[in-house]
Amino acid sequence: MASTSSDVSDQTQAIPSRRLSSPQPSELTEELSKRLYPADEAELRDQQLEGLEWSETPYFTGLHHNAGEEDEMLGTSSTGLPQGDLSKWRQKERLKTSAVALVLCLNIGVDPPDVIKISPCARAECWMDPLSMQPPKALENIGRLLQAQYERWQPRAKYKMHLDPTMEDVKKLAISCRRNAKNERVLFHYNGHGVPRPTANGEIWVFNKSYTQYIPMSVYDLQAWVSTPCMFVFDCSAAGLIVNSFRAFSEQRMQENAQMPQYQGVPTPMDDPMKETIILAACEANEILPQTADLPADIFTACLTTPIKAALHWFCARTHLKGEGLTRDLVDRLPGKQTDRKTPMGELNWIFTAITDTIAWNVLPRALFQRLFRQDLLVASLLRNYLLAERIMRSCNCTPVCFPRLPPTHNHHMWQAWDLAAEMCLLQLPALVDKEPGAEFQPSPFFSEQLTAFELWLSHGSKDKQPPEQLPIVLQVLLSQVHRLRALKLLGSFLDMGDWAVDLALSVGIFPYVLKLLQTTALELRPTLVFIWTKILALDRSCQVDLIKDNGHLYFIKYLDTTDGSAGPDSRAQAAFVLAVICDNHQRGAIACARSELPAVCLRHLMACSAGRLRSRGWTLLAKWLALCLGKLCEEQAEVRAVALQQGCVEVLTGLITADDPEIRAASIFALGSLIEAQQGDALSSDKDRLATERLIAGRVLSRVYDASPIVRAEVALVLARLCSGHFTLFQEAAQHVQEMAAAQRTPQCSSPTNSTASVASRAASMRPGQLPPSKLDLARAASLPADRLPKPLLAAPGKPVQLMNGKGQSKAEPAGKNPPEVRGVSPSVKVEPHAPVDVSAANDLSMSSSREIRQQHLESTAESGARDVEPKDSAEEQDEALYTQVLDGLCALATDPAPRVCRRGEAALKLSNVELHPLSPSGQLLSKAVSSATLTGSPRSGSSIPPSMRFQVRSSSHSYPSSSSPPSSPPSSPPAAPAPDPVTDPGKATYVLRKVQALPQDPDKRDCGTVLLARHLLNPVR
């Protein structure tokens, strides 16, 4: 195979072509039989590696051309990652907390009997002193403040509370919340500062109706009332006992369910109730809550619901800034809102979110991080704040408990970055609160410094090293307009390190950020943002649904149609790739893109890709992906296909099938194939214009049957397979004609090697561009037609002598006495050729396989001897039938192609027409699969002897598929057939078994890696 254009040579490697010695006829018979009937797929894949001699003639192929061949067998995706790991970053079910139950057992003014308070001690609840007003009013205010603190994190949830409740009140509250939440999460918050500690038997305390007794309430009952999914927050002493009881009761419940009889065959659910349960407890089973006066009494709740205020109060008590006039009252006057990142409060909240996300992502397993920090907004917020609670309460000799259990994070080094950011903010606080002249808030350099650290990691990091801990911070920086461009470029550089980097970024939560950025109009962000989306969709195309939902495809269509020079061809090719993925097997995406005039955009820019521009790598890449995008857009979309045909896509794509770059040729042929309707049915009753257009496409594609590139020939096989599927009835007629002619014209004598070689050589003359090569039916019908009715491809130019080609591509005179075979009604100077010249050098040094030469000899002899028996038909009908016959000839060539991928697809396409290709033994008998013992892996070099006894027979089925249903999956039962007589010794009595082959899926381009798109042999150049 000749080399491709020099523009893609940097991505290719030279592989020597193969040279095979001329086998003996018996060896060739066995190998050809094995070639047609491989024992298994592995043998077919390994045939190129066995018994080969390598010549010095190189041809070029990219490593990415064979990407995806082994994916389905190895259970991996085209990216090299296991298929099951691709979408783990996306939660199957995104839960949300829709009901919150608040239970406060404070009993203000009365201390529980097992609590001994120090003096002074912590008294504040929800940052207010409960003794500052009457107990009933204080209890009501505390409840209202707690609800407001939770609403800051989840304002859409339904909140219900009971203050100093009874057991019946708690039961009604829990059941009501579960009923309102349905299958969503319920949050149950319990404050037990006014009741005794939980018991070792798994009981917490509430009150009786007269508030004269403490009533124990079993956690076992609470589990049943709240059910799952749920989250519990227990702010009381010895809260760890409750967690232990939860786990013990969960195991007990599972055992009880397993012992229950199964009624009516319905299995008892055995799922662990703790699987969907999250518990946050204030301290261990043997600990009491801290009572230091510098902190509120509900410091655990304060950390969960008001983290910034709790962190600053704790930091203020331990910092040296006390001498600077910093007090807790001044901290309470910190200006700004949490939602405004330009204010001190908003910036600190932004930094706190980035730091706690970073700590969790670096210490937790990926699956647990996804569950706790990416599934539910309220749960994620409370778990981030829990990390702060662990740090603060451990300083008070108290250890919070979480289920699922988290590793210790109180000593993580990122807390030092938080202390620095908090200190720099508090230094400015006196001037900002007093509103001194010229006092302006100075933003923290935290994010800029973290981007610098991330950039440093990129210069030295790799897949084998620890992932960058700043990745969650980079995502937070995307929210800032100041650092957004820098963060996007660094993120793009990280994604460019490989699929593992893309998967890592998706697992940390990049997707919602970059999806939202598609709504921006900043021109400087467009190239980097398109590149990032290219990387994401190359790994996981399921994101196409989210893009269409948010109208993200409009962003890429607009960028693809950029003509002001701000977008280079490489970057626009990436946009074309994104749009192609959006349309791939996604009807809604294809329709949305078509309504946005994507077909016109693709065709307009394809026409702009002139021959001179295609010498550049960027324009080559753009033309390739424009063709692929157009093909995916029209695939299985009749309305879009009709629009594309009206806009002249056939002419535009036909001009690219002769491009120098084989990937452009393959992409254009794929796009042409998408214009063919592949649904099986009665082709005679279909739209005549559609059939004519599809026949025109098939005629154009036939010229690439002998293309030098195997990826091009593989796409040709798929296009012809689609034609076989859509024109099934017409192909059956063509196959029947071939069968009848082969049966009628079989002679007992085989042509000699000399005559066969001359016959093959006599067909090497060139035809005018755009004409279809003649088939055996053309030659047969030409014998009975007058010269003025002959099809133009069969008329020889007057006065032109016949020129033969030698193996080196040089013309030579015909040997004496070896005139070309004459056909009645045709001038002796007629030149007949296969779909491409036999000239080896003219065909890019692609050696013709021995099976093709043998097939040509057989078809030539049958056409010459049987020409007189064919009746003339209408010229248009003749040309149509000739086309189908030529398609069958092309599929026979592809089914015996030396490339395994091409061979498999050629055989599959023949089976779609109920046609099988069988070799003949030297005696003329059909070979059976039992004689297959070797594999034909190549073709003899030019000039080698070809055994004349090796011929092929096309065998078609007498059973047609139903016109409106799928092909049957198994052949009909029939009585055993009698042994067929030898067609050589007794041709008059020869019978040809009409055999039905097993059906294949209707859509031929969806099996065996059937397209050139999506991380297969054309994806790597873009990625």
Automatic annotation (TrEMBL):
Cross-referenced InterPro entries: ARM-like (IPR011989), ARM-type_fold (IPR016024), Raptor (IPR004083), Raptor_N (IPR029347)
Source species: Apatococcus fuscideae
Polar residues: compositionally biased ranges: 1-27, 746-760
Keywords assigned: Repeat, WD repeat
Region Disordered, residue ranges: 1-42, 745-775, 790-878, 931-990
GO molecular function: protein-macromolecule adaptor activity
Low complexity bias: start-end ranges: 792-801, 938-949, 956-967
Biased composition (Basic and acidic residues): 31-42, 866-876
Protein name listed in UniProt: Raptor N-terminal CASPase-like domain-containing protein
Gene3D superfamilies attached to this UniProt entry: Leucine-rich Repeat Variant
